[in-house]
Design goal:
By secondary structure, the chain is an alpha+beta fold. The protein has 2 domains: 177 residues, q2cbj1_9rhob like domain (Jelly Rolls), CATH 2.60.120; 41 residues, DNA Excision Repair, Uvrb, Chain A, CATH 4.10.860. Helices cover 33% and strands 31% of the residues. The chain has 6 helices and 17 strands. The strands form 4 sheets. Strands 1, 2, 4, 5, 6, 10, 14 and 17 form an 8-stranded antiparallel beta sheet that branches. Strands 3-7-15-12-13 form a 5-stranded antiparallel beta sheet. Strands 8-9 form a two-stranded antiparallel sheet. A hairpin with a 6-residue loop joins strand 8 and strand 9. Helix 1 packs antiparallel against helix 3. The chain is globular. The mean pLDDT is 96.
């Protein structure tokens, strides 16, 4: 399931993030890539322990915790330490690749299974040309290029790439989520059921059907979740 998360970061939070990134110490993005990904990766990333990365990371993590759509779709169990990257100039692209199944958090070494990938856009589309996130799914490649502050969720199992940036710079924060529900198909079914229940409540209030379907949702979650 590929899902657009609108306005994960507020305008004020984007301004804080962009201010923090002014003069940031960008480094070779291949340092964090696996063996296959490193052969097609040509971008820059911030070192985990620099001040700018810490500022953006805290803004994003706080936003994740308060955004109901993201929490409902991803059902987080663990979150990988968010990183910040930049595309443009001599480092403009990231070719087709699949992310490592297991990542290790930089702060404590904890293993995180990469069930769900998340990219938070930090630059508006008008600031750069190219730089689309292309995600392969059952129906072919889907391109994503969102306003600053918006995010996209997609399965960690997907082959994906970032097309070359030919003008300006593409700035983003990215991370992975280990979900309580490992299966993308099961997460999708739970999400669709939850959205339908919400619409039913909006239309008919707390009716018997909404109560019954809520019970079904939680029983499925109880069956499939690993906490």
């Amino acid at each position: 399931m590929l899902l657009h998360i609108p306005e994960l970061l507020s305008g004020d939070e984007i301004r804080q993030a962009r201010q923090a990134l002014e003069g940031a110490p960008w480094a070779d993005g291949r340092d964090s890539a696996g063996p296959q990904a490193a052969t097609v990766k040509n971008n820059e990333q911030l070192p985990h322990d620099c001040a700018a990365a810490g500022t953006v990371r805290q803004l994003v993590l706080r936003a994740v915790e308060r955004h109901p759509l993201l929490l409902t779709a991803a059902l987080p169990r663990k979150i990988f330490t968010p990183r910040v990257n930049r595309y443009g100039g001599d480092t403009p692209f990231y070719g087709a690749h699949v992310d490592n199944a297991i990542r290790f958090r930089a702060d404590n070494g904890e293993r995180v299974r990469t069930d769900v990938s998340c990219t938070v856009f930090l630059a508006d589309p008008a600031e750069y040309d190219g730089g689309e996130l292309l995600v392969q799914d059952t129906y072919g490649a889907r391109g994503v290029k969102l306003p600053a502050g918006h995010a996209v969720l997609y399965p960690g199992t997907s082959i994906h790439e970032v097309t070359p940036v030919t003008r300006g710079h593409r700035l983003a924060c990215f991370f992975w989520i280990e979900s309580m529900v490992r299966s993308d198909e099961q997460r999708r079914l739970l999400f669709e059921l939850d959205m339908a229940i919400m619409k039913l409540r909006d239309r008919h209030g707390e009716c018997d059907e909404a109560v019954a379907l809520t019970g079904t949702y939680h029983n499925l979650l109880r069956m499939w979740a690993d906490t």
